[in-house]
């Protein structure tokens, strides 16, 4: 069996999701980990029984590496991705793909120029629950879509924000509760409901002593004509499971956490399926790794088949653009239309 060699760049909190994702992919092999902090890189290498580098440049010289998976602070994704693609490696990057549209567009341009694939990690799309809801909408089981809502009312402690200097900074995190935590719910909402036409929002810092938002609400108008809302926080104690609600003229579906679905379809008995999966409500280390593993499997299979991997850079760009539109609306106190100019 042909396998792709993976290198993980960044050995922070998200390392285990990437590492387990690679190890859970039959056609993938973990070649190495990379971190400028040598003790951290060495510990990760020992955990995964692989080698380590303290320099991206040195790692990129390794002929066994086919794919670079980026697990760095959000505002450092572009340079690492471009360097990897220009060295002949495919790239799959943790969300957000980057924190500005300008940076993302540069990454896309290099991907096209080098003919190397670039994908963003949005693992919630790969859960069976998410796929079944999307299929039901596409098959018309919910009728005409009327309303789509995403609620990610999570909590993060002051200790969490102090645990790394890049957290909750505009320069490296790109924002707060929306750009770091709720971006998965926002991506999933558009996965179900389609693209957004305009947004009106508030984004405030109500609890934590941080320069970015810990509480945000937004009202959406989708291109389809449907309406929707987003609530994203790291300020609500003790935090609630993420919830997405989609409503059409023939039914309603509610997704709680990652896997629990409540189906209320016209002419059918109410049905509940799946289990409630803790998804990092108050502890980011509690997030399930199922989705990462599923996406790494899909990414690897696509590359080996010579096909475009799912969640392209262009697709990953959409959630960042919507979040930036929410920030712009909150700052300027007016409705913002998409695409941003």
Summarize the structure.
This protein is of the alpha/beta class. The chain has helices at residues 15-23, 38-48, 56-60, 77-86, 101-114, 128-138, 158-162, 177-193, 290-304, 313-332; strands at residues 4-9, 28-34, 51-53, 67-70, 90-93, 118-120, 145-153, 196-204, 215-222, 227-233, 243-248, 251-256, 260-265, 271-273, 336-337. The chain is built from ten helices and 15 strands.
Q: How are the strands of the biggest sheet laid out side by side?
A: 14-13-12-11-7-10-9-8-15
What is the arithmetic mean of pLDDT?
Answer: 96
For the terminal residues, how far apart are their CA atoms?
Answer: 47 Å
Our count of helices gives 10
The CATH first-level class of the largest domain comes to Alpha Beta
Name of the CATH superfamily of the largest domain: Dihydrodipicolinate Reductase, domain 2
As for the number of domains, it is 2
The general outline is globular
Total strands: 15
Structure description:
- The chain has 341 residues and is of the alpha/beta class.
- The chain folds into 2 domains: 4-120 and 291-309, Rossmann fold (3-Layer(aba) Sandwich), CATH 3.40.50; 127-277 and 319-337, Dihydrodipicolinate Reductase, domain 2 (2-Layer Sandwich).
- Helix content is 34%, strand content 24%.
- It has helices at 15-23, 38-48, 56-60, 77-86, 101-114, 128-138, 158-162, 177-193, 290-304, 313-332, and strands spanning 4-9, 28-34, 51-53, 67-70, 90-93, 118-120, 145-153, 196-204, 215-222, 227-233, 243-248, 251-256, 260-265, 271-273, 336-337.
- Strands 14-13-12-11-7-10-9-8-15 form a 9-stranded mixed beta sheet. Strands 3-2-1-4-5-6 form a 6-stranded parallel beta sheet, sandwiched between helices.
- A hairpin with a 4-residue loop joins strand 9 (215-222) and strand 10.
């Amino acid at each position: 069996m042909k396998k792709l060699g993976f290198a993980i760049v960044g050995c922070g909190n998200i390392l285990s999701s990437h590492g387990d994702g690679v190890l859970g992919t039959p056609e993938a092999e973990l070649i190495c980990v990379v971190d400028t902090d040598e003790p951290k890189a060495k510990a990760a290498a020992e955990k995964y029984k692989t080698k380590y580098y303290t320099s991206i440049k040195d790692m990129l010289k390794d002929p066994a590496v086919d794919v670079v998976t980026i697990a760095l602070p959000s505002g450092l994704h572009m340079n690492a991705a471009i360097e990897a693609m220009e060295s002949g490696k495919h790239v799959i990057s943790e969300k957000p793909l980057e924190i500005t549209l300008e940076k993302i567009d540069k990454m896309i341009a290099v991907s096209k120029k080098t003919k190397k694939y670039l994908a963003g990690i949005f693992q919630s799309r790969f859960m069976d629950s998410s796929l079944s809801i999307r299929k039901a909408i596409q098959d018309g089981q919910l009728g005409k879509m009327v309303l789509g809502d995403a609620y990610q009312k999570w909590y993060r402690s002051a200790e969490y924000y102090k645990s790394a200097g890049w957290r909750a900074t505009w320069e490296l995190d790109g924002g707060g509760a929306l750009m770091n935590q709720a971006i998965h719910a926002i991506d999933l909402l558009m996965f179900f409901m389609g693209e957004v036409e305009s947004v009106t929002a508030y984004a405030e810092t109500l609890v934590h002593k941080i320069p970015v938002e810990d509480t945000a609400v937004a009202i959406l108008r989708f291109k389809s004509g449907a309406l929707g809302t987003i609530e994203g926080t790291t300020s609500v104690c003790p935090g609630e499971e993420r919830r997405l609600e989609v409503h059409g003229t023939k039914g309603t579906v509610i997704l709680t956490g990652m896997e629990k679905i409540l189906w209320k379809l016209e002419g059918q008995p109410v049905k509940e399926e799946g289990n409630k999966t803790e998804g990092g409500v108050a502890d980011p280390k509690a997030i399930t790794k199922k989705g990462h593993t599923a996406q790494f499997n899909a990414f690897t299979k696509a590359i080996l088949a010579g096909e475009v991997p799912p969640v392209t850079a262009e697709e990953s760009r959409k959630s960042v653009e919507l979040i930036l539109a929410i920030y712009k609306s909150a700052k300027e106190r007016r409705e913002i239309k998409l695409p941003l100019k």
